[in-house]
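Subject: sequence -> structure tokens, single chain

Hey, anyone have a minute? Need the predicted structure for the following. Not urgent.
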Amino acid sequence: MSQWNEKPFIDYLNAVDDLIEASTGKLTEQRDIDEVAAAQEAGDTPEECAREFERRIKIRGLNDALRARVQVPFFGTSHDRIFQSRGVSALPPTDQIEIMARVRDFDDFTEDNDPYGEHDFGAFTYRQQKIFWKIDYYALDMKHGSEDPADTSQTVRVLTIMLAEEY
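Reply:
Had a minute. Here:
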């Protein structure tokens, strides 16, 4: 049991916030009070709790950077992949371009569609069709999931754009 279990929650929260601010230069709106409380109850130190939020901030930034590069043609890095489903590929080219632009510019993140604050999923309607996009994290061999999606040296990010009916 950590010494922090015995301290008031507000002290623990302030310590976590101070650490996040020192590391990132700003407080994150993605810091969830319930998660901080659960970390304190679990006996995590403020440093451990702040590290988890910082990890999510890094993953979110990497995911946003991948989406920012969605275009035709795609110019990615060796660790980026962007795929669109057969259903999206069957749409007229102008529709495909508009869908890519909407994925690139998507910012309607909520607790329902982004519970971990990683910006790894989105959904929107385009011409009466529901469109999903999802970012998954794979190991470099592409055979299993990445052990640490925040580590670009061991993670391949895969963005898939699809019709909801293809999910």
